[in-house]
Amino acid sequence: MALGFSCKSKQNEVSKAVNTKQKPNIIFIMADDLGYGDLGCYGQTKIKTPNIDKMASEGMIFTNHYSGSTVCMPSRASLLTGYDQGHASVRGNPVWTKSGTPVNLKPNELTVANELKKAGYKTAIIGKWGLSEGNTKDNMPSNHGFDYFLGYKKHSDAHHYYWDTLYRNNDPYILKENNFSLKQGKYTHDIFVNEALSYIEKEKNNSFFLYLALTIPHLELTVPEDSKKPYQNLGWPKRKMNTNGHYKNDDEGNATYAGMVSRMDRDLGKLFEKLKELGIEENTIVVFTSDNGPEYESKDRFFNSNGKLKGGKRDLYEGGIRIPFIVKFPGKIAPGSKSEHISAFWDFLPTACELAGIEPSNNDINGISLVPELMGNTEKQKKHDYLYWEFNEREGPIQAIRKGDWKLVWKLEGKPELYNLSNDIGESENLALKEPEKLKEILGLLKNVRTENNEFPLKTRALAVKKRGEK
Q: Is-above-0.70 flag for pTM?
């Protein structure tokens, strides 16, 4: 359904040239392992995020939005394809399959980029792809609808901010001066931000979709000194980091973590200013979110990265999957608005399609367009019957369902945990014994929420922990 977007006339020549198009630009910005409470607009008091907070004040903030998974690879797959973890092809990080062989997107599997290309969009991903594991060459972004790619091909490469081999489209892009073990050379986050600014400049006269998949603040914790400086003399407790393991962390964690988040915020401010400078801000919808809950603060709560939420990355409690989600679209989304609508990553594909005036190619996706909610037509917004996740690592599989205010978390070899999120957002009281009828209802639903997948069977992963380790 075409929405007939149009822009207000501008005085300068650049604006007159670019604002004749009807389809809005779409910029989707994803942080990596950023917690629900890591932003000022979600209650953070120690880390300064003025640009993202301003974005929230000028757009809509969601309080019940969920990631595709509690770890990055399956979460990104759900975002791109519109399928939840009961139906997605990718349901776990690389080593956690039954065979030990990574599962990528299926060759030529449709993504939101494929859909938008059909509508005439230029498409790009800059940053972390993380969906082309192993030696395969047929699962690059170019095989899934993206015209342009600069970034990390593999999941584990993106753990290092001074990595020496990125990819530009399908070819290695070598950073000769970079040494990840010594943390020397160009900080890859800076490369991605500068590339995004250049891309927007280049495509300002076209309708474009930019998926900016940043790696901040994923471990390893490291950031240039200028970003740490504002946080180093505040009397904060020091948190010593392991500097010699897989992650080449800086010595002290708290100032580094805060500096990373604030550096990201600073650079997103540059992006927002670029849109204004080019006269395309009013024809651009910008989304900001995180791929899952935080890891750095999964135990230490100095920053209170999840606020009142329980758990963090690798949990299916709220802290692992409920994430910040902010959307700005000047003149279309009411400034300072807040939504309690229950939604998830798999809603992005149908939302983008409706914004572009097309229908999704697959009619069996799990996502529902969020356009009515975004435009203030809450009464017309369709709702999910349920949201479903599974986590195929460690002691998993672990399954979780949210149906209305009720949330079920069930470990394969444990007892069901039932929570009412309307009055227990911290999931502190298991109501499984007190609410047997509700438990029976949701357990019955659990039997029909997933398709079978040979690489992700509902069988314990305990042996995988010993054989493969964890990163």
A: yes
